[in-house]
Design goal:
alpha/beta, 8-stranded mixed beta sheet, 19% strand
Length: 258
């Protein structure tokens, strides 16, 4: 598939959502709600769970499956309270020394007037800042779309993994085509130039692993991801300073490494 075909695949309503990954990989999941400031944003789900025998905090961006559920979850575009809920869960994880695992699938943060009035930009920035500074291992998996800061807010991890047909970009191909050419019909043309595929991200050092979709959604698929997560969590828990490791990773990506 070319880049734009992968964009379409990443957006497919047939793909598993965060709830599918959480229910299939983890056990004893207890969902926690609310940001203790405004309300519970259902575009982000999160709580406590076990990865085999390891207690973890799991956070995911959820698009929903049916039309009504997707409307309730803002089609996976979180409001500020969603990111603030995620921050609350991450701080709780650090307090009790639990690794954090996130699943990301979003076209971007919700851009309504109410979201801006409640501090959308600040909420995203604080989520990135909190995630970068955690003293516990953090692993993020991009399972579909990874749109701009709305995705980066939950992808500032020690390791970022991407499914082979997921995409990660500062802007959608349609948005880019509209800005450059004033024509959304050129989206397919600009998609390749955005270098948004999993292979591109791996080559750039933005992603650390590309996960095959050969058995997408099947029992073996989730078992394989669970095994990889457990192995990597155990490795990271042996590290003396996962916070500095995460900081150095992003300095290197940004071209600031010594």
């Amino acid at each position: 598939m070319n880049a734009y075909e992968k964009v379409k695949e990443a957006r497919s309503r047939k793909r598993p959502t965060s709830i599918d990954y959480i229910s299939s990989i983890f056990s004893s999941f207890i969902e926690l709600h609310g940001d203790r400031l405004f309300r519970d944003d259902e575009a982000i789900i999160g709580g406590l769970a076990y990865l085999d025998d390891i207690p973890v905090t799991v956070i995911g961006i959820e698009k929903g499956k049916s039309t009504m559920e997707s409307l309730r979850r803002s089609f996976g575009s979180p409001n500020p309270e969603g990111y603030r809920k995620a921050v609350r869960l991450m701080k709780n994880a650090e307090k009790f020394n639990r690794p954090v695992i996130t699943f990301v699938d979003t076209a971007g943060a919700y851009c309504g007037v109410g979201a801006e009035e409640r501090g959308q930009g600040e909420a995203i920035a604080n989520s990135i800042l909190t995630m970068i500074g955690l003293n516990v291992p953090v692993i993020s998996i991009l399972i579909g779309e990874g749109g701009s800061g709305g995705a980066l807010a939950l992808l500032s991890a020690n390791e970022v993994w991407m499914l082979e047909n997921s995409v990660y970009s500062v802007i959608s191909p349609e948005g880019c085509a509209s800005i450059l050419y004033k024509d959304q019909e050129k989206a397919a043309e600009v998609a390749g130039n955005l270098r948004l595929t999993a292979e591109d991200a791996l080559a750039l050092g933005v992603a650390d692993r590309v996960i095959s979709e050969k058995n997408l959604g099947e029992k073996e698929f989730y078992q394989e991801i669970g095994s990889m997560l457990k192995e990597k969590v155990n490795d990271l828990q042996k590290c003396a300073d996962v916070r500095s490791m995460r900081y150095d990773r992003f300095r290197k990506i940004g071209g600031f490494a010594q």
